[in-house]
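As a next step, we paired sequence with C-alpha cells, yielding the entry below.
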Amino acid sequence: MKNFISVLLISLVFTLNTQAQKVFNITDFGAKSDSKSVNTKAINAAISACNKAGGGIVLVPAGTFLSGTINLLSNVDFHLEIGATIKGSDNLKDFEMNGVLFGLFYTEDQENISISGKGTIDGNGSFYHKAEIPHGIENGDGTDSRNKYTRQGAGYMNFKGNTEDGPIAYTARPNVMLFFSHCTRLSFTDFLLINSPSWSMRLNECEEVIVDRITMRNNMLIPNSDGIHSTSSCNVRISNCDLQCGDDAIIVTGYSDYFSFDNNKIEQGKKYVYGSKAGIAENFVVTNCILSSRSAGIRVGYGYQDIRHCYFNNIVIFNSNRGIVINARDRGNIDDITFENISIETRFHTGHWWGKAEPINVSAIPESLEDNKKGTIKNVRFKGFNIIAETGIVVWGEKENDISNISFQDIKLHIRKGKYNELLGGNLDLRPAYDVKRAIFTKDIAGLYANNVNQFEINNLKITRDENLPDFYTNGIWIENFRKLFIDHSQIKSLDGKSSDIKLENGDGCRIMNTLDLFGEKVTTTYNNVKNLKAD
C-alpha cells in the first residue's frame, strides 16, 4: 500500500508540473498541415510567444507541416506528438537568411531547449539529390586520376554510372538539418529523424547536452548525411540511439567557431552568453547505440582544438564502410579515448566514400599543404571487440611520435571474403591527406597493420579468416617503425597461410609472450632491423 501511494503521489506531481507548463499549439498561430502551406512564420511565431512568456511547450499536433528554417529560443520544449511531422520545404529560398543558406533548425546562443516527443522530423533530402548520378567521380567515364597509386590502377573504383552504394550527386541543398551553436542545456529525446539533405545534427561549442532514444533513417546514398556532429562541445551524452546515415554516424571534432557547409560560412568572432567556453572538445560519452554508416560508424578527430576524455561503450556498428576512425589532420591533439564492448561489421562499398572496410582506422597525417601541421594521438584503448570485416585494422603515423600509448585488448577479428575484395582491396585509404600518394595507395593487407607507433600493446587478440582470400592478404600482424611493442596471450595466423603470422620491421623494444597460432603452435615471425627483442 505504501508503495502504491508513493507511485500515485509521484504521478500526481508529474501531472501537475506538466499542466503548469504553458502550451503553444502551432495551429493556433496559423500552421496548416495541408501539404502545401509553408509554415515557417507560424512555427517561429509560436516559439517566440513561448519564449516571451517565460518558456513552455511549443506543440506540434498530428499532421505534416512543411517549413523552412525554424529558430528555437531559450526555455522552449519543441514537442512532436505521435503522428506529427515537421518536413523541410522543397524551396531553397525558405532556408535563406541574409544571403546564407541554413537548414531546418538553426539556434544560436540560447539555453534550456529541447526537442521531444515521438513525432518525426523529415529533411526532405532526397528531393535535392539525383539518384541516378554518382557523386565524387572526376571523369564522366568513371575513371579518376587518383586511381594511379592503387593496386587496380584505372580499374579502381571504375563503376561508371553505378550508384549501388552511393554517393549520389546534388547541385544545391539545405544546410545542416539541426544546428545548435553556443547553447547550454540541450535535450533531444524520442523523435524520429529521416531523410536529412546534409548533416543531420551539429552541436557547435555547446555544453550540457543529452541525446537519448533518437532514431535516424537517412537516405544511405546521400553524401554527408551524417548523424550527430559534436564540434568543440563539452559534457555531451548520447545514449540508446539507432542511427543509419549516409556518412559518419557519430562524430567528435575540435573545429574552431564557425558555421560552414557546402560553401556557406559565417565567421562568428563575437562573444556569447551561452555554450562552452573551454575551447576544447571534452567529456563525451556514447552508450547503448546501434550505428550504420557509409563512412565511419564513429569518427573522432579534425580541427585546431584538442579532443579529450571520450568514452564509447556497448555499441553495435553494422553494414558500414568503416567502424571506428580516429583522425589527427590539423593542430588539435587527441587524448584519452576509450572504446569498450563493441561489435563491428564492415564491408567494401561502391562509390567514393572515404575508407576501405577497415573496422578500426587510426591515423595522423596532414590534410593540407597550407598548414602542414597535425596533432598527436595518444592514450587510446580498444577493449572487448567482436569484429567481422573485409580488411584489417590500420594504425598509421607519419612520424615517430605521432601515435603513442595505444592498446588493443580482448579483440576477436575475422577477415571475410566479400563481393568487392579484389576490385577495391589491397590498398590503404588515408583520406583526407595533402599528398595524393598518401590518399589511396597499394599496400598488402594484414589483420592488424601499424606504422610509426610508440608504446603499442596487443593483449588477447585472435585473428581468423575466410579461405581463398586474394593474394594481397598476407600477414596476421605487420608493424613497421615502432618503439616499445608488447604482444601477449594472442592467437595469430597469417591471412594467406604462407606469410608470417607476425612481421616486424624497424623497431626498438619488443616483447612477445604466450602467443601461438590458431593450432596451438608457435607463431611464425619475420624480423627486420628490430632491436631489443624478447620472444617467449
Q: What stands out?
A: The CA atoms of residues 40 and 67 lie 5 Å apart.
